Amino acid sequence: MSILVDSGTTVIIQGITGKEGSFHTAQMVAYGTRVAAGVTPGKAGQSFDGIPVFNTVRDAVEETGANASAVFVPPRFAGDAVMEAIEAGIDTVVCLTEGIPTLDMIAVRQYMKGKDVRLIGPNTPGVISPGSSKIGVMAGYIHMPGRVGIVSRSGTLTYEVVDQLTRKGIGQSTCVGIGGDPVTGLSFVDVLDMFQHDDGTDAVVIIGEIGGRAEEDAAEYYRRHMTKPVVAFIAGMTAPSGRRMGHAGAIVSGGKGTAAQKIDALEDAGITVVRNPTHVGDTLSDILSGKKKEQHL
Amino acid sequence: MKIHEFQAKKLLEDYGVPIPRGQIARTDEEALHVAGQLGEGPFVLKAQIHAGGRGKAGGIRVVDNVADVGRIAREMLGKVLVTAQTGGEGKAVRTLLVEEAIRVGKEIYLGVVIDRQKACPVILASSEGGVEIEKLARERPDRVITEFVDPAVGLRPFQASRIFYSLGLDQSMARLLMATVIGLYRLFLDKDCSLAEINPLVVTDDGDLVALDGRIVADDNALFRHPDIAGLRDISQEDPLEVEAAKHNLNYIKLKGNTGCMVNGAGLAMATMDLIKLAGAEPANFLDVGGGATSQMVTEAMRILLYDKDVKIIFINIFGGILRCDTLAQGVVEAARELVTEIPIVVRLEGTNVEEGRRILTASGLTFTVASGLADAAEKVGEIVRRIG
Q1: Do B253 and A180 make contact, defined as CB atoms within 8 angstroms?
Q2: Do A255 and B85 count as a contact with CB atoms less than 8 A apart?
Q3: pLDDT tens, A134-149?
Q4: What is the pTM of this model?
């Protein structure tokens, strides 16, 4: 079992003919993802590796019945591309793009209200249910099917943790990148809720970082609703304040959003927080084998 | 992207917010000229730097007479101002804002930011202006008014009215205050800001409303559609190494430490800095080389790291995934050869063709310490730092 994507997910690739879109479409297909169509305005009728290309998302959905979309569209147009997918009835949109203006994402969130859609990202490596399907750019080979869910604001740091788990024989149910931007689609809370209700997930790893309140909100959700163990690592203990550390959402503003504050909130709620990023695998392993009592308050 | 106070005030003025009379000056003669135009004084000379805390550091000086303006301007210009917010290296003062001094009555705080979770703009106001709003919000949340703006309909007049009534001002100030709130919000929206703030907004002795200080931070991701705002960038306020790195599309932030690091991915880069600290060393920088770590980028990145004379060891941490490690290793070898450095370099590679990548590094004959994993790399960094002291 898994959340968000599985072997039945059918994907259209928005921006399929671009450099990023084309390269990663081939990678996704090789992994086993069902890619039904691509969308690039003006390129209808073309075919990419046997995948039909359409001018609009609506055409692609009507023709193929796809239910998910990957947006590989430049920042200037990405917000609009996401809205197009939402309007066409796509229920799972993954927006890989980094650099979308925050106000554009606010408009997207507004557009999503009242509609049955989940947005993953933006500024994300995507989502993968190992062994079934991946929508994104992560390297499939480091993942292994299993029962631990991962939810992260990062890209390569997620791979780091996944790699640790796989090497220890701990497989993953689904790995979700919620992205590094200040305004995102799914939040930590949304994904924790999905994992809590997923029969295929026994434990969760949260990979957070400085900026915003997503981890604090996750701590609160965990305290009230979660029964499954959670291990967390928060990047940025050594980050200076007031500087944007790569990700648009990774900034300590006015003394708020520090790694220390997040760690406090998470530990306060009973989540095990790992201080050393290379210890996530060991810590999770101990908890799963019952060696370490995870303190649920 | 930050802009100067005088630039923020010009924008505020464009959006109907009253600002003090004043002009910028880049020399003491200009300062004198501006003061002469303003009238009798007193005047305020404000250092224009991209940091707060100027007042306490002597960056805001009240000058009673025109006769003293030139001298005070000379004292302030051309200096490096160190405040609680600039860091030890301070910021260069190249520009002063010379304004008429205003007799200040009540001080109000007014600001617009984004609420991430609600995904909407939020207006913050307080009848206790002139103080650090975050501190106030923490200690006396009851003194801060919050108005969330529904993106579907924008800021409603009734919200501006609610803000007015919670500030405890005289009824005669209603229209002026509400226009200021609406103007600030429109500016925030029109220019894609991350923050737009007036602190303090003051009620003068004559019953006017004036923005005594203005602060605007623009959303970097939106600069492509605001060339006017992008054009306000002041490189003199940025670290020269960071400016150089940006030219090569490298995301570099200079810190103070002995271990330079180069990583692909912001989260992993932050985690690497954290690991360096845990290993007993001090991260000298944040550097995200991004997804396309080509040989050229690696060379440029190493060059930047080596400019920092405090750097005694370099830690390269690349989790390739799809990125090929042999290609990357080749790039690292070429960079080290070109830059002819004696500094120990610890390399941790992971990803496609990793064994070949490690082989290329070891066979190069250069001073690479090739790590077998991230934990191993951190340990080696710690060992080397302890060894070289």
Answers
A1: no
A2: no
A3: 999 999 999 999 999 9
A4: 0.95
